[in-house]
Every structure is written in C-alpha cells, then in structure tokens.
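2024-03-11 09:14:02 DEBUG pipeline.ingest accepted 1 chain
2024-03-11 09:14:02 DEBUG pipeline.ingest length=179
2024-03-11 09:14:03 DEBUG pipeline.predict start
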Amino acid sequence: MKPLPLALLLCAMIVPPAWAASGTMIKNDALRQSASSSAASVGQVSKGASVEILARQGGWTQIRHAGATGWVRILSVKTSAGGAGGDALGLIGMGTSQHDPSRVVAVAGLRGLNEEELRAARFNANELLRLDQYISSRSDAEQFARSAGLRRLEVAYIKLPKREQESTPSSSPWGEGGL
C-alpha cells in the first residue's frame, strides 16, 4: 500500500492548493477591484490587519479581508511564516531548509514584467497621452526647487578618454562627447 501515499504526495504537488496563505498588512493600502493603480477602490486595509493571500500578479497581491476581496500592492503585505498556504513544494522546502537567523535578506518580490505580460502587451496611444499629465514647465520646476530649498549647482562634464572620443560621432544628439 505504499504507492498510494506517494500518489497523494504527487497529486498535492501538481494540483494547485485550494487554501489561501495568511498574511499581514505592513502598511495601509487601498483595496482595489483589479491589479491596477487606476482601478476603483473597494475599501481600505490598515497596517497590521490579518489577510488571506489569494493570488499574485505583477506588482499586485489579491487578498481577502473582512469579507471583501481585492488587490493591494505587493509590497504592502507580507506572507505569514506559519501560514498554511503555498504550494506543496514550498511546504516541503520549508521543512527541509536550514534557517540562519544571523542572515538578513530583503526581497522586493518584483523583477519586472513576466513572459505572459510581455506577450499580452499591446500599443496604447491613450496611455502615452496620459504622460502629458506629468509635464512641468521650467518655471514650475524652478518654483518647486525654491520652495524645497534646492540650490542650483553647475557640474562640469567629464571628458571622455581619447580612444572613446575618436569612435564617438561628432553629431551626437547629446552634445559634445556623447552621453
């Protein structure tokens, strides 16, 4: 009867778990309808609140809190170490790995776009037009700098070594000497 327990273990590793991981909010954040900062807010989750982590997508984590389900930024919530969630391989790894309390590791959990997101990407002219909202005039920037107590500082360009100057085209759009 040994093949049955082995088969159950293999099924547990292949079939995604039906339970959610527990987590704790590490800062206040808005609970959003979808994984986007422009999505409508469906509530607020406070720092220290216990939540259920349901899924991750890009820089977002789907959670359930106080009967509401939504998305928060990935850096706003941490998975509880003793949570029941995660996949079977993660549980096995937790039980077999050694823990070194003198070693501190910080992980942001986001390394850019994944392959699926890159394949689904489409050109959107409206998103480019939204960038116009962030334009500041020179006078606005100077006024901000004054109010923040910033001072103007002249910095001399660093001369490129001779061998690099020879290979740099003289018509560089970045001025003399290139970048």
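2024-03-11 09:14:41 DEBUG pipeline.report The chain has one domain: 9-97+106-146.
2024-03-11 09:14:41 DEBUG pipeline.predict end
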